[in-house]
Amino acid sequence: MLFYSFFKTQVGQHVTVELKNDLAIQGVLESVDQFLNFKLKDIKVVDEERYPHMLSVKNCFVRGSVVRYVQLSPPTVDTALLQDAARREAQSTQQMQQAKPNVAPPVA
Amino acid sequence: MPVTLLHSLPALSQTRFTAEKTRVACDPPSDAAHGLGTLYIDEQRVVFFSTEASCGFSIDYPTIVIHAVSRSADPVGAHLYCQLDGPFPGYAKAGGDSDEEDEEEQFAELRFIPEDEQLLDDMFKAMSDCAALNPDDGGSDSGSDLDDLCVGDYQDESAVQTIEEFNSSAFITSPDQLSSLTPKGRETLAHLESIIVESTEQTNGYNDEGRFDDAE
């Protein structure tokens, strides 16, 4: 859920979404849902020659499960906030495991 | 079966959008995906069917990698663009020039061109909504640890470790380490804790799962 919260902070920012099929799309993040499906606007395909049909596409919906990387613009990332969020998540996980010792840890 | 060829229109119960007189084009070309028909955007799948030709096809949402609206600058006209995660069935590699671009034929692109361009935004929205209703199965996508990390599994330790690896000394990962903070650091932390509301709510939601433990 950390990732979902984090990407919500990136709405309105320029990102480059790199797909598992090597397609890379630059655009402005319009919305993201809990499955990390991305809606992008003002998009531009990095390798336009390979995807001529996408030349006139301006908005698109990218399935979260096909995303390999998301490239972000460094100034838009609040690392202090991320550190704290990561710490909190680690802490809550730890507390949960202490509270319920009989529950097996999640399969990584 | 991600893409299924049809010879009769299947029963569709939860269709969000229907666009009659829609043309379809597939690249690489396929006999099964061209011509005029009706596009049904159903909650379970996308169906294109031509009553005249008695043929069509249906696509599961996980097969659709990207969908998008392409405006009139495109020579085929404004259309709904769908990129699939694999080739379209019925595509034969018999074409003369297909060898050199072998690698690039791994995916198919479908274009649905409605008679009325005004429908496109609603078509796009319907397809987006339905795609969100159909997340991938956990096991079906072996290469995807992203799913495992993010869909509900937010106590996965690898998520934390990945960040840790960047600079392990700069991250505080357990409450014990808090005592090493400077007074200034504590101030910053207190401030951060006061502004992060969202993650707290989500954590609470997760912890609530334990509330049923007492019931037994």
From TrEMBL, chain A:
The ranges of region (Disordered) come to 88-108
Q: Does the keyword RNA-binding apply?
A: yes
One GO term (biological process) = mRNA splicing, via spliceosome
Q: What does this protein do?
A: Component of LSm protein complexes, which are involved in RNA processing and may function in a chaperone-like manner.
This protein's source sits in the domain of life called: Eukaryota
Q: What is its main location?
A: nucleus
Compositionally biased tracts (Polar residues): 91-100
Question: In this protein, which residues make up the domain named Sm?
Answer: 2-76
User: What is a single molecular function from GO for this protein?
Assistant: RNA binding
- Spell out the GO cellular component terms annotated for this protein, sorted alphabetically and separated by semicolons: catalytic step 2 spliceosome; Lsm1-7-Pat1 complex; P-body; precatalytic spliceosome; U4/U6 x U5 tri-snRNP complex; U6 snRNP
Check the record and name the Pfam families matching this protein: LSM
Quote the protein name from its UniProt record. Answer: LSM complex subunit LSm2
What does the similarity note say?
Answer: Belongs to the snRNP Sm proteins family.
Q: Where in the cell is it found?
A: Nucleus
Arranged from A to Z, the UniProt key words for this protein are:
mRNA processing, mRNA splicing, Nucleus, Ribonucleoprotein, RNA-binding, Spliceosome
UniProtKB/TrEMBL annotation, chain B:
Ordered alphabetically, the record's keywords are: Cytoplasm, Nucleus
Which InterPro entries does this chain map to?
ICln (IPR003521), ICln/Lot5/Saf5 (IPR039924), PH-like_dom_sf (IPR011993)
Single biological process term from Gene Ontology: cell volume homeostasis
**Cell location:** Cytoplasm; Nucleus
Which Pfam families does the UniProt entry name for this protein?
Answer: Voldacs
Query: Where is it predominantly found?
Result: cytoplasm
Tell me which GO cellular component terms the UniProt record holds: cytosol; methylosome; pICln-Sm protein complex; plasma membrane; spliceosomal complex
Q: Superkingdom of this entry's organism?
A: Eukaryota
Entry's family note: Belongs to the pICln (TC 1.A.47) family.
User: How is this protein named in the record?
Assistant: Methylosome subunit pICln
Q: Identify the species of origin.
A: Coemansia spiralis
